[in-house]
Design brief:
The complex is a heterodimer. By secondary structure, chain A is an alpha/beta fold. Chain A has 8 helices and 18 strands. Chain A folds into 2 domains: 183 residues, 3-Layer(aba) Sandwich (Rossmann fold), CATH 3.40.50; 123 residues, 3-Layer(aba) Sandwich (Rossmann fold), CATH 3.40.50.1220. Helix content of chain B is 25%, strand content 32%. Chain B has a 9-stranded mixed sheet, sandwiched between helices. Chain B has a two-stranded antiparallel ribbon with strand order 2-5. In chain B, strand 3 and strand 4 form a beta hairpin. In chain B, helix 3 crosses helix 4. Chain B is globular, with a radius of gyration of 21 Å. Chain B starts with a strand and ends in a 5-residue tail after the last helix. Classes of the chains: A alpha/beta, B alpha/beta. Chains A and B meet through helix 3, helix 4, strand 7, strand 9 and strand 10 of A and helix 3, helix 4, strand 9, strand 10 and strand 11 of B. Bound molecules: flavin-adenine dinucleotide and adenosine monophosphate. Adenosine monophosphate binds next to helix 1, strand 6, helix 3, strand 8 and helix 4 of chain B. Adenosine monophosphate (AMP) binds next to helix 1, strand 6, helix 3, strand 8 and helix 4 of chain B. Chain B: It comes from Sphingobacterium corticibacterium. Chain B: One of its GO terms (molecular function) is electron transfer activity.
């Protein structure tokens, strides 16, 4: 019995959600007395690999095969399953990131494993039966799932647990996987990535705006507020539908579901479909000029006022807070 | 071009979600069902790619007879025929096995699903089907084009996007951007009544997991309002009370 945690990288850099998965795996390992091995696939330098030791894992298997320098879902799933078998892992943890969502079912199918998708808690363990909670009905409910198969795959929702430092020496073991040509038929033609921006699914703070902002030309204050807070930006569906903002920023039932520590909603009415994607945020702040806006009913803090008046003041207030 | 579109039947997005039997079962009383919004996008793209005799579109649903209005709507939007696999859709693993087992003998060029269903939000069916059939899969496609025997897909990644060329057959989970949902017209609605809807029996698949119960998130306390001329107070509350900055 062992635990394997797959830690994803973007252009060689491990992601925050990857370290969260490592910490999560370590907590399960400590509770069940199982060793935890990390797995990295792709071109990652030695320093970054050793850095995983900061989160308490003593061994990392590094797959650096040239053909896997870019992410191909099918091949990565095969490698993760192969490594899991080679160390006889009965628990496989990964992040429920965009790539993770593509990998998890393929890995589970290969291993005949039960799959906890989008886990938001640690497992409650009763022998072979593990109970894990996940969000369901687009954030309107929480489902408790019981995994009964001997092998378990857990895809962890970003921002669920903190990456906790517990530094230890780490051994890096290179691994040459068997890769079938049929798993490598997809070809990546282009990657466009804004490296200076905080990815929305991983952000601790999200500044989100809706139709109340009137037009795309007014997003300067939203971006400035986000900059001051080190936040990601998001928007309501009509805003992305109108092309004021890119689709990737659309949150809600038919967009991205996010659960940051702080969600600031500006000029968003709080329609049920919008709330579905943001209601699991830890703290919600609403800024709206209509005191009757439904969003106030589910907010922790609110300001009734005109965004164009309030946001510049708020930017100044956060700057003042940062500077002292 | 032969396309299979997987359709799930989900509660309307305005539904109030409650549970019965000691919070172990979803309360379907008074719930209106719709085609999963992402599946509407998949279907719309299928109609663009294979409509008007350029190919055939089959829609497939795993579920009981109560989903037939949703299936008929898919036919009205432009699918040529429909398959219903007659069993409650226990979970994604079960559903994917049913679909893969049907698709195996059919040589579809493209299998489309939505990026996720808005009820159980798994994003799983697509990857499971692909793995069971041993073909490539793309989750969360924002764009989908076909060039001969390949699909060119734009996939969402954290903070950006990736363009991938995938040989067909492949399974693609569609999200916003792939197509605009289509509203059925009168001709489509009339025509849908006579299009074939075949019902087939499910295969037996052992369960690996199940949902034991549901909780509804605890309501937040009352909102604390801060005066618009004293925004510094909000900063203070976020720091010392909510402890989020
Ligand atoms: C099937 C379906 C799926 C959907 N999925 C989603 C989804 O995933 N995400 C989503 O967001 N929506 C979704 N919607 C749409 C949703 O129902 C709402 O229409 C949408 O969320 C409203 O966006 P909004 O709040 O930006 O705009 P509006 O409802 O127009 O609200 C604008 C708000 O701005 C306020 N305002 C105006 N001027 C100012 C000002 N100067 N200062 C401050 N406040 C101001 C107004 O008081 C108002 O409350 C979906 C709808 C359907 C039918
Ligand atoms: N019962 C079902 N019948 C057919 N297709 C389904 C069913 N459930 C889910 N799907 C498909 O799988 C996609 C993803 O669902 P899920 O993995 O449950 O999030 C949906 O968008 C549908 O295309």
């Amino acid at each position: 019995m062992a635990i394997l945690v797959y830690i994803e990288n973007i252009a060689g850099a491990f992601k925050k959600s990857g370290y969260e998965a490592v910490s999560y795996a370590k907590t399960i390992g400590d509770a069940t007395g199982q060793p935890v091995t990390a797995l990295s696939i792709g071109k990652v330098d030695a320093t970054s690999l050793e850095n995983i030791g900061r989160y308490g894992v003593k061994k990392v298997i590094a797959v650096n095969t040239e053909q896997l320098h870019q992410f191909v879902n099918q091949a990565y799933a095969a490698v993760i399953a192969e490594v899991a078998k080679s160390i006889q892992a009965t628990t496989i943890v990964l992040s429920n990131s965009f790539s993770g969502k593509g990998l998890a079912p393929r890995i589970a199918a290969k291993l005949d494993a039960a799959l906890a998708d989008g886990a938001i808690t640690l497992p409650t363990i009763t022998g072979e039966a593990w109970e894990i909670k996940k969000s369901a009905f687009s954030g309107k409910a929480i489902a408790t799932q019981e995994l009964t198969a001997p092998i378990k795959v857990i895809a962890l929702t970003p921002n669920t647990v903190e990456a906790v430092e517990a530094p230890t020496a780490i051994e890096v073991e290179p691994f040459e996987p068997q890769i079938a040509a049929t798993d490598l038929t997809s070809v990546i033609q282009d990657i466009v990535q804004a490296t200076d921006k905080i990815p929305l699914p991983e952000a601790n703070i999200v500044v989100s705006a809706g139709r109340g902002l009137k037009g795309p030309e007014n997003w300067g204050i939203i971006e400035e507020l986000a900059d001051v807070l080190g936040a990601a930006t998001a928007c309501s569906k009509p805003v992305s539908d109108a092309g004021w903002r890119p689709h990737e920023e659309h949150v809600g039932q038919t967009g991205l579901a996010v659960s940051p520590n702080l969600y600031i909603a500006i000029g968003i009415s709080g329609a049920i479909q919008h709330l579905a994607g943001v209601s699991s945020s830890k703290t919600i702040v609403v800024i709206n000029n209509d005191p009757e806006a439904p969003f106030f009913k589910v907010a922790d803090y609110g300001i009734v006022g005109d965004a164009f008046d309030v946001i510049p003041k708020l930017i100044d207030a956060f700057k003042a807070y940062k500077n002292h | 071009m032969k396309i299979l579109v997987c359709i799930s039947n989900v509660p309307d997005t305005t539904s109030k979600i409650t549970f019965t039997d000691n919070n172990t079962a979803f309360n379907t009383t008074g719930i209106q069902y719709i085609i999963n919004p992402y599946d509407e996008i998949a279907l719309a793209r299928a109609v663009e790619l294979a409509g008007n005799g350029q190919g055939t579109i089959t829609v497939i649903h795993v579920g009981d007879v109560s989903a037939e209005p949703t299936i008929r709507k898919a036919l009205a939007i432009g699918a040529d025929n429909a398959i219903r696999i007659d069993a409650p859709p226990r979970d994604a693993w079960f559903v994917a096995h049913q679909i893969a087992s049907y698709a195996k003998a059919q040589d579809f060029d493209l299998i489309l699903t939505g990026r996720e269903s808005i009820d159980y939000n798994g994003s799983l069916v697509q990857g499971y089907i692909a793995e069971l059939l041993g073909i490539p899969s793309i989750s969360i496609a924002k764009k989908l084009d076909i060039n001969g025997t390949n699909a060119t897909v734009e996939r969402e990644i954290e903070g950006g996007k990736e363009v991938i060329q995938v040989p067909l057959p492949a399974v693609v989970g569609t999200a916003e951007g792939v197509a605009e949902p289509k509203i059925p017209n009168m001709r489509g609605i009339m025509g849908a009544r006579s299009k074939p809807l075949d019902v087939i029996a499910a295969i037996d698949i052992p369960a690996l997991s199940h949902i034991t119960h549901f909780d509804t998130p605890s309501p937040r306390g009352n909102v604390k309002l801060v005066d618009k001329d004293d925004v510094a107070q909000l900063v203070e509350l976020l720091h010392s009370e909510a402890k989020v900055i």
